[in-house]
Please model this.
Amino acid sequence: MVLDGLGIDKAAFESFIASEKPSYVECENWILTQKGGSLDAAAVAELNAAITGYIHDDETRAAILGEAGRADDGTIKDAVNLNNLDDWASFHAQELK
Model:
């Protein structure tokens, strides 16, 4: 969704990620380089609206909430908050090195 919304070639992005293993900031900089130094504000606004409004299917929602140890009581439906819960549960589950 993000790559399409920004007009980034998926194969080029995957190759960059695989070969460089960039940090978040390095990834941002690579994307900006691909887009000539800046992003189209209207495209970013449209992408942000699509992300904010995205709703996972019931199976995905239930799986994420289950992994996070939270009841699926219908109060969290949007993908942004579900993805945050998924990230936090994954980080918590990792052993500190």
DSSP finds six helices and no strands in the chain. Helices lie at 2-6, 10-20, 24-34, 41-53, 58-68, 79-93. Residues 79-93 form the longest helix (15 residues).
